[in-house]
Amino acid sequence: MMKKVNAKYIGNLLLLHAGVFLIAANIHFFMAPNQFASGGLGGLSIVLYAFFPNLSLGVVMLLLNIILFIVGFAFLGFQFGVKTIYASFLLTFFVWLLDYFYPMFQAFSDDLLLQLVIGTLIAGFGLVLVFNQNASTGGMDLIAMILNKYLAIDIGKAVLMADCFISLLAVFAFGIDKGLYACFGIFLRGIVIDYFTSQFNITKKVVVISEHWEQIQKYIIRELHKSATIHTAKGAFTNNRKKVITIILERKDYVKLKKYISQIDRKAFVTVHNMNEVIGTGFR
User: Fold this and answer.
1) Do 183 and 196 touch, CB atoms closer than 8 A?
2) N or C: which end of the chain has fewer CB within 10 A?
3) Residue 207 contacts residue 242 (beta carbons within 8 Å)
C-alpha cells in the first residue's frame, strides 16, 4: 500500500514539474522572442523586461513573484497553498534555466500567428497538468484573488481583467500589433485550457445489465475499489426482472471494467456516456 502511495505521489510530482516546464518553454521559446505579453506573470515580465534588458527574464519573473506574494500575504493571508508557491518559483527557475542554457536571440520564424498558436497549445496543456495537481503558477492569480475579496468581482472576470491590463501595457511597450496578438493569445488560451481540462476530467457513466451482475458487483468493489448503484428493472418485451448496475468511472477504470465484462458475459448489455463534470464523494 505504501509503495502505491509513494508511486502516486512521485507521479503527481513529475506531472507538476512537467506542466510547469511546458509553461516555461512557451514563455522562453515563443512569448519572449516575439514579445507576446498574453497575460499572466510571464506576460507582465516580458513587458517589464523590455524596460530592463540588462536583467534576465527569469530574474524579472523572480522579482515580480516576490512582490506579488508579499502583496498577497498582506491582503489575503496564507491562502495560496504550498504547491502554488512552489510551482510559481519553479516556473521562474525553469525560465532562468532555459535562458541560461539556450538563449533565444531571435524568434523561430516570421510567422507570428503560428508561433502564438503553438506556444499557447503547449502552455495550455502545461497549465492543465498543473491545475490537476491542485496547484497554480500564482502570479496574476493573486491580484485576481484580491479583486475578488475586496471588490466582489468574480474570480474568472478578475483574471481576465488582469490579463487585459497586461495586454494594454503591451500596446504601449511593443505597439498595437503585438498588443492585438496578446489579446488574441488570452482568448485562445482560455479555449485551449477549457478543451484540455474537459479531456482530462472526462468520466464515464456506465450502465450494465447482466445475468452475472453479482460477479460484476464484486469486481467493482474489490478490484476497482468503487461503489455503484444497483436497481431492479423489468424488460418491456419479456417482462423478466433484471438487475441494472450504474456506476461513474474514470477512463482507466472503465477500460478495466469493460475488459472484465467481456470475459465473463459476452451477452451483457452495456451503455456508456461521457460525463464532463461529476461532483460528490470520490470525485472533484
Assistant:
1) no
2) N
3) no
